[in-house]
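Escalation from tier 1.

The customer reports that the assembly of four entities below gives different structure tokens on two consecutive runs. Tier 1 could not reproduce it. I'm attaching the input and our single run for tier 2 to review.
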Amino acid sequence: MVISADIGLFDFSVENSIINAKKSIFKYIRSMLSKKTKYGIKALAFIAKKGDRKPVQTSEISKSENISQKFLESILLELRKSGFLGSKKGKGGGYYLIKEPEDIRMTSVIRVLEGPIAMVPCVSLNYYEKCDDCPSEEACSVHSLMIQVRDSTLKVLGDNTLADISAKK
Amino acid sequence: MVISADIGLFDFSVENSIINAKKSIFKYIRSMLSKKTKYGIKALAFIAKKGDRKPVQTSEISKSENISQKFLESILLELRKSGFLGSKKGKGGGYYLIKEPEDIRMTSVIRVLEGPIAMVPCVSLNYYEKCDDCPSEEACSVHSLMIQVRDSTLKVLGDNTLADISAKK
DNA sequence: TTTATAACCTACTAATCCGATAGGTTAATA
DNA sequence: TATTAACCTATCGGATTAGTAGGTTATAAA
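Tier 1 run:
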């Protein structure tokens, strides 16, 4: 019985790695950071890099960063509505930062564009939601693990400002 | 212009917080950890808690942890195929651990059930994939940030074993 | 040897979200 | 007055998630 279990383990491990290989080649890899958030951060970094406060057009960012212009428009609009950017219409218009890059933490950007930073709503600070299945969060084996993950992620994202990530070249 | 920008900021910040409030009440909160993975970890912890190596039935775990039995079946099957569990058919059958809980790291469980741990494929160690839009990963403002997040998450998940999370009560 | 059990397998589904597209309106500049 | 660029509304295909349904195979007990 032990032997057959071992053989089973071996066979299936091989089989599984093939499945995973196929997965990575042919299938969509689930990403925890949406393109929306990714594009939003890139756009903010692009604007921050320019340094001056002159409005930057969506079209310029779109071309330079290979982002669909229409999609980017909606993202920048959202960033304006949530207080990261100011805007100016008409010729010479565009978007500009209304805070110093040093004062824009990645946590706040991601919370606006992506939503919760925690991997699970029941440990989210800003988007908390109780699990339907868990009678007690203390008894849940996943809960404390996810709190640890949340805190370590929060530390990284809270320590990094727009100034930090746009300094990289 | 500065004044109108400020007013705009204020108005929209308020509006946005209302939108977010509605979001958390009425809408689905995106979770980075699928229920599949969550249930899988819970099931492993359940089996580990029992201590002895006697097979545990899917139905028992399903009832105790409030998980759809059919869904759980598919998860435990996957955990067996990827080498975490052994199984026994027929009466008195079920699933049992084939490794010590101390030797099962959360990183490996999550990689099997969820896929990549990184937030973005371009910084994933086990599921790497190049971004279509980025010409250079070094120049990407998101890249190094995501590496930091990945490493801190990896640290937490690598330090926690099944023994650690099932010890909690 | 039959019967009950529980793992195993295959296929399908509703709901949801993501990323994008299309087409138009408003406001500011030249 | 014409052009520009932000702003707004609606819609969509493709993909995933979290199941459900219904059966087959292997094992243990009767």
